[in-house]
Give the backbone structure.
Amino acid sequence: MPTALAKAISFDDALMHVTLTDGRILSVPIIWFPQLHEASAEQRGNYDIGMGGRSLHWPELDGDLSVAQLLAGADDASR
């Protein structure tokens, strides 16, 4: 089974959209991630994709997420 890898991230008022290299777009509520929810649009837009597409990082927020975490439903992030 191929691994899901991120290639881009975008946001709207309620959702974070992670575009994967295979063409899928994973959309999750940003309210699940208080750091991102409270961040400015500029801070959200300043991200790095690392580990070959497996890791998402926001340097200004010192925040990290993994694509695997998002695919699993981010259960741990909402607690």
User: Anything to note?
Assistant: The chain has one domain: 6-71.
